[in-house]
């Protein structure tokens, strides 16, 4: 089994990054793939998309989370948690990721810590896909994530400030390609879209003008059902199949599969 590692990243918060990651993961699982999601953000929202709040808090307060894997206190096999969906597992986050930069800088091979933790899992081919929710930063922790990543997907909010920082994000990824030759930007997906607003067209036109970066045809429109799903610790694709946004994430997942 050839495991593909896909990271969802944008250094601007509120881009729909976590929501996109969780829903694509669920759609891939539904198509018969075995999927692992890694919550790389201290806000723990990806963990909360698949696990109960009680469970997430328990993992945070114990050492069974990603921070303690990076510190060396836990092996990756110790912290993988089955989600509510068979075939989809979770590595939960921790609020202690607020300290991750200091942790990584204190170690040898600073850029390879995450790679060292999960490369055996990739080598064994236990999962078809590993999806990582990346925090909205550009530090050493993000370098660690990109160093093990095959494909990057950048969710961009269709709003007046949605493009803020995108050039820096793309430049940062391109810089990391020097050390990870297999790294590529799979595409940009427009999120939180209101097609009646002028800035949606302006944002789409600008993104389409960027050379050599694909903009997915599928867009994710604003949908209150997404919030209801989050309140129930589910991706919208699991919470309500009939929701418009669920269909949009299904279409996006098809595009992602076709483009790899």
Q: Mind explaining what this structure looks like?
A:
The protein has a single domain (4-250), classed as Rossmann fold (3-Layer(aba) Sandwich). The radius of gyration is 17 Å and the shape is globular. The chain has a 7-stranded mixed sheet with strand order 3-4-2-5-1-6-7, with helices on both faces. With 260 residues, the protein is an alpha/beta fold. The model has no long low-confidence stretch (mean pLDDT 95). β6, α9 (166-176) and β7 form a beta-alpha-beta unit. Helix content is 44%, strand content 14%. The chain has helices spanning 17-30, 45-50, 53-61, 66-71, 76-79, 100-105, 113-124, 140-147, 166-176, 198-208, 224-231, 236-239, 244-259; strands spanning 4-8, 35-39, 81-82, 88-91, 129-133, 151-157, 184-191.
- The number of helical segments is 13
**Known CATH architecture:** 3-Layer(aba) Sandwich
Summarize the main sheet. 7 strands, mixed
Using only C-alpha atoms, the radius of gyration works out to 17 Å
N-to-C SSE string, H for helix and E for strand = EHEHHHHEEHHEHEHEHHHH
Give the class-level CATH name: Alpha Beta
Low-confidence stretches: none
Overall pLDDT level: 95
**Quick one: CATH superfamily?**
P-loop containing nucleotide triphosphate hydrolases
Structural class: alpha/beta
Sheet with most strands: strand arrangement: 3-4-2-5-1-6-7
Number of domains: 1
| β-strand number | 7
- Helical content (DSSP H or I, runs of 4+): 40-55%
Give the overall form.
globular
Residue fraction in strands? 5-15%
The CATH topology turns out to be: Rossmann fold
Distance between the termini: 15 Å
């Amino acid at each position: 089994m050839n495991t593909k590692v896909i990271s969802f990243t944008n250094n601007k918060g509120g881009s729909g990054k976590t929501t996109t990651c969780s829903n694509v993961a669920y759609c891939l699982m539904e198509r018969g793939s075995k999927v692992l999601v890694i919550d790389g953000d201290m806000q723990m929202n990806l963990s909360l998309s698949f696990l109960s709040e009680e469970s997430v808090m328990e993992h945070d307060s114990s050492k069974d989370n990603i921070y303690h894997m990076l510190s060396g206190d836990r092996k990756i096999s110790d912290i993988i948690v089955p989600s509510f969906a068979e075939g989809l597992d979770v590595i939960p986050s921790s609020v202690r990721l607020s300290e991750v930069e200091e942790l990584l800088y204190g170690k040898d091979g600073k850029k390879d810590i995450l790679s060292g933790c999960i490369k055996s899992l990739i080598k064994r081919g236990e999962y078809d896909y590993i999806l990582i929710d990346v925090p909205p930063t550009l530090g050493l922790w993000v370098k660690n994530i990109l160093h093990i990543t095959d494909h990057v997907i950048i969710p961009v909010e269709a709003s007046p400030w949605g493009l803020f920082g995108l050039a820096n994000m793309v430049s940062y990824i391109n810089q990391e390609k020097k050390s990870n030759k297999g790294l590529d930007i799979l595409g940009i997906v427009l999120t939180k879209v209101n097609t009646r607003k002028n800035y949606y067209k302006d944002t789409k036109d600008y993104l389409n003008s960027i050379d050599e970066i694909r903009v997915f045809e599928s867009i994710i429109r604003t949908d209150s059902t997404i919030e209801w799903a989050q309140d129930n610790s589910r991706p919208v694709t699991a919470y309500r199949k009939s929701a418009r946004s669920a269909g949009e994430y299904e279409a996006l997942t098809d595009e992602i599969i076709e483009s790899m």
